[in-house]
Amino acid sequence: MPNSKVVVVTGVSSGIGRATAIKFAQMGCRVFGTVRNIEKAQSIEGVELIEMDVRDETAVQNGVQAIIAQANRIDVVINSAGVTLLGATEETSIAEAQSLFDTNVFGILRVVKAVLPYMREQGSGRIVNISSVLGFLPAPYMGLYSASKHAVEGLSETLDHEVRKFGIRVSLVEPSFTKTNMDINAPQTASTISTYDKDRNTVFEAIQKNVHKAPEPDEVATTIFNAALGTWRMRRTPKGEASLLSKLRRFMPFGPVDSGIRKTFGLS
Which is it for the CA torsion 204, 252, 151, 47, positive or negative? Predict the structure, then answer.
């Protein structure tokens, strides 16, 4: 396997993005990791940091151009920058929903639009979008986050049909609960409705319990590495719970799946 691939990983300040950047660097790739504020970012051995806020189209274009100026090409893009939000759908403001989509969906779109001209010109490339099991399963009190990941799945599948003739393929990685600060310290909606208090608190407790016993992001990073440089497959789920949930969703009737979701989150 070539070890000279130029890899761009978005959102490397922490969590899955950071673990992924480290993994590619350890495997001999030239890695560029994007951060919102380079002055506040912690350095990563073997990773060249690029200031790039995926919510800002100009910043994305400038960041990608800076990478091209240094490396002359981009072989792999890992879209891992993301945010989450906890709360009932009714409690979620339009502004909160728009902010979440601005990073999780439109952030990917901005990066894709910036890198595709270079990938098309070189006649090759791999784009790996980090989704979630919530991209194919619902989760109570994470409605807008789930919706954003469903959107990422639709965008990715469509994009793969459009760009494969240029030698470019698109893949999804769909992790389940992962022990990251983003999940442990997930923000909640600013407004609450008391009618939801009991179930919301039960779900929040279940999420915290599952996150604290979840695997470290290194396991997801290995799956991402294989998705980027291994044989192409549209969907990749890390071993364990994510892989099991993918199979259950595909082969089990809706009723048992629905019941299993409610049990996982402590709902009757």
Answer: positive
| Coil vs helix vs strand at 139 | coil
Go through 57-95 and write b for each residue having 16 or more CB atoms within 10 A of its CB, e for each that does not: eebbeebbeebbeebebbbbbbbbbbbbbbbbeebbeee
Mean pLDDT of 44-60: 97
CA 213 to chain centre: 20
- For residues 157 and 136, what is the distance between their CA atoms, to the nearest angstrom? 13
Catalytic residues: 13, 131, 145, 149
According to CATH, the topology of domain 6-264 is Rossmann fold (3.40.50)
CA dist., res. 227 & res. 235, Å (int): 8
Q: Shortest CA distance to 196 belongs to which of 140, 136, 257? A: 140
pLDDT band at 6 (very low <50, low <70, confident <90, very high): very high
The domain locations on the chain are 6-264
Q: Tell me which H or E stretch contains 47.
A: strand 47-51
Name the residue among 188, 194, 210 with its Cα closest to residue 143.
188
How does DSSP assign 96-122, residue by residue? HHHHHHHHHTHHHHHHHHHHHHHHHHH
pLDDT level of residue 126 (50, 70, 90 thresholds): very high
Q: What's the whole-number average pLDDT of the chain?
A: 93
Contacts of 97 (CB under 8 A, 6+ apart): 144
CA–CA distance, 19 with 167 (Å, rounded to integer):
27
Q: In what order do the strands lie in the sheet with 30-35?
A: 47-51, 30-35, 6-9, 76-79, 125-130, 168-173, 235-236
The model's pTM is 0.92
Inter-residue contact 204 to 186 (CB < 8 Å): no
